[in-house]
Amino acid sequence: MVTRASFLKRLGSAHPILLAPMAGAGGVGLAAGAMAGGAVGTLPCAMLSPGALRSQYSELRARAAGPINLNFFCHRLGTEPDDSAWRALLEPFYAEFHVGPPTTPPPLRAPFDAAMADLVEELRPEIVSFHFGLPDPPLMDRARGAGALILASATSVAEARWLAAHGVDAVIAQGWEAGGHAGRFLGEDPAAQMGLMALVPQVVDAVDVPVIAAGGIADGRGIAAALLLGASAVQIGSAYLHCPESLIHEPHRDLLASEAAEHSLFTNLFSGGLARGIPNRLMKALGPIREEAPRFPYASTALARLRTADPEGFGPCWAGQSARIGRPLPARTLTEHLAADALALLGRTDTGWQL
């Protein structure tokens, strides 16, 4: 069993805190600030081309010292589904804004592939993390061969066991509370997903690798609770959305500080995959879940021009259930406060993260 102290040493960060990957919200500035405060900096890569990722990685290396986590999706694209029912459902909105489905579809969220494996071998990040399971073994072997620590998300104990059996170095236990896309990949009923308080200790007991707690952690209380439940580290996303370095639009930022943030829901409207966000016009008009929305990641295509016309109404406002706890602090300051508050609660201000 890897101890918490040895895992923190392997992470290479001052604190057992990882910035969550948040495509469209995270980026170089947010990661650099989190790293300056002692956390692991993360770049969300599923919506980046290899060239864009290389550029962001180089910029982040120039701006901050410390470990970098590159996060990739592992979904299967397959044959493009028929989205005619989805487009028909959106027709009243098209008429309102005098637009239609895009004539040239925008890039989809892409799974980890050989081109990205080439880039991992070139860049040699300290950490590579995966969402929606793992890539095929040859691709995963290439990431590991580049010297990266391999992490992956689990939304159930069964998924955690599967990941551990397939060679990850640590499991990210993602609770029901987490914002953005749930990393579910074994096809279990979404209604059966556990909250973090129940999930973490059961995953800790079920696997022989370190566990990183994710979902609903937004302050020192959450960090301390997760560590006492047996987690070796935490991954935090929504609390960082409040930071000035996050890339979210101002209406999204305003919603995070409002009572609306207390009522986030899972929806499949924006990508076709279940993801937690604050209800907006599209979710309220259609309901958060629709059978007409094609499977992940294809639902986003038909929304592209509506999102351009009205980003607040037709773009996602991802947020976890503890999003409102966050404070509009610079990422470095927020990270330092998170660590100090957790250490004080754990009575470890002088002895560090030893428990």
From TrEMBL:
| Reactions listed under catalytic activity | 3 propionate 3-nitronate + 3 O2 + H2O = 3 3-oxopropanoate + 2 nitrate + nitrite + H2O2 + 3 H(+)
Q: Which UniProt keywords apply?
A: Detoxification, Flavoprotein, FMN, Monooxygenase, Oxidoreductase
- Pfam families named in the record: NMO (PF03060)
The prosthetic group or cofactor this protein requires is: FMN
Any one Gene Ontology MF annotation carried by this entry is: nitronate monooxygenase activity
One GO process term, biological-process aspect: response to toxic substance
Give the family, as the similarity comment puts it: Belongs to the nitronate monooxygenase family. NMO class I subfamily.
State the name under which the record lists this protein: Propionate 3-nitronate monooxygenase
UniProt organism field: Edaphosphingomonas haloaromaticamans
